[in-house]
Specification:
The protein contains three helices and five strands. By secondary structure, it is α+β, with helices and mostly antiparallel strands. The protein has a single domain, classed as Alpha-Beta Complex (Peptide Deformylase), CATH 3.90.45.10. The chain has a five-stranded antiparallel sheet. A hairpin with a 6-residue loop joins strand 3 and strand 4.
Length: about 140
């Protein structure tokens, strides 16, 4: 189900709780909502659809890839970036890393540990910030 986008900074600035099997529908809704906004958005966190759970969806090759309980365990090569956010509007400066390693559960709740680089890494960092209540 495509959900409305949350724009309340007070809600978005609260950290999200870990997700579990009962949050499977939220993950599906998040992926569908990201796909519906593909013309203006490349990643979403569950709090952007009003659910404070650690679930993100990232556009990779036209698909919305879901990551449940993502944690960035390694960062390399910092750089300055400018980012926009569908929930907040405008563009802001932030520090990102060219390469990150992330542990997470995939959409089937199987554990994964993957290295991401460049644009995909930047998107994931932005969405993990959402899960931590950090607004960019």
């Amino acid at each position: 189900m495509i959900r409305p986008i949350m724009r309340d900074p007070m809600f978005l600035s609260q950290p999200s709780a870990d997700a579990d099997q009962s949050d499977r529908q939220t993950a599906i809704d998040l992926a569908e909502t990201l796909q519906a906004h593909a013309h203006e958005c490349v990643g979403m966190a569950a709090n952007m659809i009003g659910v404070r759970k650690r679930i993100i969806a990232v556009s990779m090759g036209g698909l919305a890839v879901v990551m449940i309980n993502p944690v960035i365990v390694r960062k390399r090569q910092p750089y300055e970036a400018e980012e926009g956010c569908l929930s907040l509007g405008g563009v802001r400066k932030t520090t990102r890393y060219k390469e990150i390693e992330v542990t997470y559960l995939d959409g089937g709740f199987r554990p994964r540990r993957t290295t991401f680089r460049d644009w995909t890494a930047q998107i994931i960092q932005h969405e993990v910030d959402h899960c931590d209540g950090i607004l960019i």
